[in-house]
From TrEMBL:
<protein>
    <submittedName>
        <fullName>Glycoside hydrolase family 125 protein</fullName>
    </submittedName>
</protein>
<dbReference type="GO" id="GO:0005975">
    <property type="term" value="P:carbohydrate metabolic process"/>
</dbReference>
<keyword id="KW-0732">Signal</keyword>
<dbReference type="InterPro" id="IPR008928">
    <property type="entry name" value="6-hairpin_glycosidase_sf"/>
</dbReference>
<dbReference type="GO" id="GO:0016787">
    <property type="term" value="F:hydrolase activity"/>
</dbReference>
<dbReference type="InterPro" id="IPR008313">
    <property type="entry name" value="GH125"/>
</dbReference>
<dbReference type="InterPro" id="IPR012341">
    <property type="entry name" value="6hp_glycosidase-like_sf"/>
</dbReference>
<dbReference type="Pfam" id="PF06824">
    <property type="entry name" value="Glyco_hydro_125"/>
</dbReference>
<keyword id="KW-0378">Hydrolase</keyword>
<feature type="signal peptide">
    <location>
        <begin position="1"/>
        <end position="19"/>
    </location>
</feature>
Amino acid sequence: MKLGLGLGAITISVCMAAAQVDCPNYTIYAQTPKGNPSSGPLGLPYMRPEPACRTFNSTSVEKVISDMKARLKDPDIARLFENTFPNTLDTTVKYFNKEENLAFIITGDITAQWLRDTGNQFAHYRSLLSMDQELATLVKAVINNEARYVSEYPYCGAFQPPPESNLPPSHNDWADGVVVNPPVNNQTVFECKYEVDSLCGFIKLSTSYYQATKDASMMNDNWFFAIEQVFRVMNEQSQPSYDSNFNFVSYYNWTGLPGSLPGMVVNGGNGEPKGFTGMVGTSHRPSDDLSVYAFLTPANAMLSVELNNLATILDDAKLAPDVSARAKQWSQRIKQGIHEYGVFNDVFAYETNGLGSRYMMDDANVPSLLSLPYLGFLDRNDAAYIKTKKMLMSRQNPYYAKGLNFSGIGGPHIDAWHPWPMSQITNIFGSDDDDEILESLYTVANNTAGLGLIHESVNIYNGSDYTRPWFAWANSYFGEMILDLAQRKPHLILHDNEPYVPGQ
Ligand SMILES: *[C@@H]1O[C@H](CO)[C@@H](O)[C@H](O)[C@H]1NC(C)=O
Ligand SMILES: *[C@@H]1O[C@H](CO)[C@@H](O)[C@H](O)[C@H]1NC(C)=O
Ligand SMILES: *[C@@H]1O[C@H](CO)[C@@H](O)[C@H](O)[C@H]1NC(C)=O
Ligand SMILES: *[C@@H]1O[C@H](CO)[C@@H](O)[C@H](O)[C@H]1NC(C)=O
Ligand SMILES: *[C@@H]1O[C@H](CO)[C@@H](O)[C@H](O)[C@H]1NC(C)=O
Ligand SMILES: *[C@@H]1O[C@H](CO)[C@@H](O)[C@H](O)[C@H]1NC(C)=O
Ligand SMILES: *[C@@H]1O[C@H](CO)[C@@H](O)[C@H](O)[C@H]1NC(C)=O
């Protein structure tokens, strides 16, 4: 079986290698301006790779770009959209084999596939899946590859290429000297930090694929097995640290040995002890940083929403009523847990331990508290959200910062004075206020270091000082936000007040 599959893979990878033989390294390419500058005051460069170097071609994506370029009133925003919207397809499809139903999608400047990132890297193409069969087939192949990863390693979030691709695994310095239980194979796993939102990313990609295509063939045995592993992890990680006899309960632990880059984690790699809340605990945050307290409110909000979506697609496809019923129960229990343990004086806490302690803050990485409306957990006019958002975009949030050049929410992943453009994009999804939306939009647009792509973080004192030249999720998220505004607030960004929806 391996030989048969391998032969197909060799043909494909040879094709791609031949086509891309002279293609520049996009991490380097993205660090200097290319092409003619846009005609607005920002004069942003054209950063798409040469057609021959693009990793996937889609006529429906090209159509959205040309439609939007004709309708966006600010040529700088149009250029940003043109660069960012296709970035996932232009640069990150490292392997795709239709017959094998496998695709490997990298995050950008790191050659590994993150479950969370892919859930977002394709989110802005959702409306195209019903009209673009090739694109839908690609997404289905991403889901199938992830079903394999999750089946084997449900506690891990970032993975190596499938063996069929014959692509070499990448070495991760940050995984050196790390002891993780259950143990992992580094030929399959790039990094095994347990982040409950990674599992949500897998479900999100699956449910949005089905909702757009109504193609239930994505839910194969592989996929159902992966979903069972998600339930297993939820069950294990919702349990308190101590049982009634004070036996310490641990299904997963992660710690660095002396001298390793990540360092040691307290309590045998388990972190801070937790109580019982009905929520599901997590070891690391969506930023890949360690959690302070296990119950991460926004990740649980996303889990509650995605479990409900999972039940909806199963019901629609008339499949696995038992799985659907469990998904609904868990979704409800988690939501109750959030309201009971995660809200204080009508303000959502970022993390709690279920024993009375809480951390009032936010981190830019989605799922974040600021993204609760984007996640579909609540309405942007929800009173507790409005109160929470006011706190998050102020000095009371330790990871909010504002300087002469840039402002927003960041996190300890880089440092407190490098907020992330992603947080301003999230703020737009969470706002109905035209002035606030434009302020956030131009805070992002003015701070691409003149490179016309969305970066990970930007120094509040110096817009030229940024991290990650090639970050596909952030680019996709910007494109998704512009499409959202084109539909929700056309007068703000389009020449006329006619909403734009791809394919309509
Ligand atoms: C691309 O360039 C970056 C930055 O120099 C480097 O770290 C990376 O290994 C290169 N990637 C490849 C595939 O050569
Ligand atoms: C995309 O199209 C260009 C021609 O416009 C071609 O050279 C390139 O190989 C195509 N890429 C893929 C992955 O098929
Ligand atoms: C996997 O782990 C082994 C043993 O620690 C190490 O020698 C090897 O370089 C690792 N491979 C990758 C791809 O990181
Ligand atoms: C770590 O997790 C494993 C299960 O994967 C468990 O058997 C072991 O007892 C845990 N170790 C600690 C120190 O909690
Ligand atoms: C963005 O830059 C323009 C100048 O090009 C300036 O007028 C505007 O106030 C800036 N907006 C923000 C939100 O920084
Ligand atoms: C930072 O902001 C100052 C004041 O608005 C401006 O003069 C300067 O050009 C900006 N620098 C960068 C690198 O964005
Ligand atoms: C701003 O950051 C850029 C890129 O890191 C650096 O070259 C430049 O010297 C910095 N400017 C100031 C005023 O620190």
